[in-house]
């Protein structure tokens, strides 16, 4: 179907978007690799473990079962997995395959980044959200009690295998949550992709085959281009955080259990659209288009008990805040953004309030 290159200072690799590419996994395991470790949850393994095992054509591997959930995306889990690797004969020649949704991609990637000071990782994202975002770009990490992804490393994969066939079993709520990251890609970089998401919700929600392929391929292409230009998020890569500043605050305020990440990003994009409009950057029509497009892919978990002041209180704790100053990615039109800091608290609060209506 499509293949996109990521070229960074440390690594060049391909992100393949191709139906059935799970079956190609052995092609990407280097001949010199030693023990192969596959990190996945029991859910993913129950659905796709047999297909993975068949694809490996007798090549030995050890599966590490991760329990799943933000609550378990912690250093303790990474340590336990590393101990399991050692117990199972892992060494510097080992390779990790992170086979799952965004949490598995992040945590499995982090395990690979630090095991024996770094072994290669292959990313096989299995949810829409991870296929269009977390699986590509080399951000890996774990949560601390004090916040999400507060420890981690950039560790680019050997290859990303994005198989849209894996979405056939994705629960509806997770699919809708992942769609929000596709909407994000449209807002930040592609008016054409945004129009697809705005005008063709029936095809998107029906998982129409060519529509899904277009959504994933365009989003992965955007992500690869942005990461290639700015691997370590010193500039352009910040645009991938559109909607994430308030999104992360919503997740923190609700203890990481109320929203799926994509749902929080959806509400966060509404806040960012309102903030873009309130600060005079975005036309009312484009603001409305963003808000309405996000809402096409709801429903969202209940918002009525959320206090905008409490949500706002988390912003300064976000790891993207620098010396207490909160940075927002704001839209200037559909397809273009700018990174802004120093917005007064009252305007931010109003944008959050509007996003929660
Ligand atoms: N998820 C945002 C990034 O990869 O930079």
Condensed summary:
The chain is α/β, with parallel strands linked by helices and 357 residues long.
What attributes does this structure have?
Rossmann fold, seven-stranded mixed sheet, 357 residues, binds glycine, two-stranded antiparallel sheet, 11 strands, alpha/beta, 13 helices
Q: What's the oligomerization state? A: single chain
Low-confidence stretches: none
Whole-number mean pLDDT: 96
Q: How big is the Rg?
A: 20 Å
Q: Give the overall shape.
A: globular
CATH superfamily of the largest domain: Dehydroquinate synthase-like - alpha domain
Q: Name the beta content range.
A: 15-25%
Number of strands: 11
- CATH topology heading of the largest domain: Dehydroquinate synthase-like, alpha domain
Strand arrangement in the largest pleated sheet:
1-2-9-6-5-3-4
Instruction: For the record, give the distance between the C-alpha atoms at the N and C termini, rounded to a whole number.
Output: 40 Å
Please trace the helix and strand order, writing H or E for each element.
EEEHEHEHEHEEEHHHHHHHHEEH
Structural write-up:
The N and C termini lie far apart (40 Å). The longest helix is centred in the middle third of the chain and has 21 residues. 44% of the residues lie in helices and 18% in strands. The mean pLDDT is 96. The protein has 13 helices and eleven strands. The strands form three sheets. The chain has a seven-stranded mixed beta sheet. Bound molecules: glycine. Glycine binds next to loops.
């Amino acid at each position: 179907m499509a293949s996109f290159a990521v070229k960074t200072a440390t690594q060049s690799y391909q992100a393949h978007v191709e139906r059935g590419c799970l079956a190609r996994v052995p092609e990407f395991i280097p001949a010199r690799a030693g023990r192969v470790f596959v990190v996945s949850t029991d859910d993913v393994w129950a659905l796709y473990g047999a297909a993975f095992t068949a694809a490996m054509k007798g090549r030995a591997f050890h599966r590490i079962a991760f329990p799943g959930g933000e609550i378990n995306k912690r250093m303790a889990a990474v340590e336990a997995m590393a101990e399991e690797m050692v117990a199972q004969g892992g060494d510097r020649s080992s390779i990790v395959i992170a086979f799952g949704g965004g949490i598995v991609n992040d945590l499995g990637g982090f395990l690979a980044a630090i095991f024996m000071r770094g072994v290669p990782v292959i990313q096989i994202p299995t949810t829409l959200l991870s296929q269009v975002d977390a699986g590509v770009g080399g951000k890996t990490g774990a949560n601390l009690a004090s916040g999400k992804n507060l420890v981690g490393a950039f560790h680019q994969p050997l290859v990303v295998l994005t198989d849209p066939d894996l979405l056939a079993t994705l629960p509806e709520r997770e699919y809708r949550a992942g769609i929000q990251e596709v909407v994000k890609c449209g807002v930040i970089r592609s008016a054409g992709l945004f129009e697809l998401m705005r005008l063709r919700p029936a095809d998107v929600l029906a998982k129409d085959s060519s529509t899904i392929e277009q959504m994933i391929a365009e989003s992965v292409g955007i992500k690869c281009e942005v990461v290639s230009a700015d691997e370590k998020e010193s500039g352009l890569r910040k645009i991938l955080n559109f909607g994430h500043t308030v999104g992360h605050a919503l997740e923190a305020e609700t203890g990481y259990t109320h929203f799926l990440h994509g749902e929080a990003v959806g509400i966060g994009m509404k806040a960012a659209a309102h903030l873009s409009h309130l600060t005079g950057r975005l036309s009312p029509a484009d603001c409305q288009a963003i808000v309405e497009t996000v809402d096409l892919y709801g429903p969202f978990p209940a918002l009525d008990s959320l206090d905008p002041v409490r949500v706002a209180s988390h912003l300064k704790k976000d790891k993207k805040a620098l010396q207490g100053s909160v940075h927002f990615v704001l839209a200037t039109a559909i397809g273009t953004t700018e990174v802004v800091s120093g917005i007064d608290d009252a305007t931010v609060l109003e944008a959050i309030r509007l996003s929660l209506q």
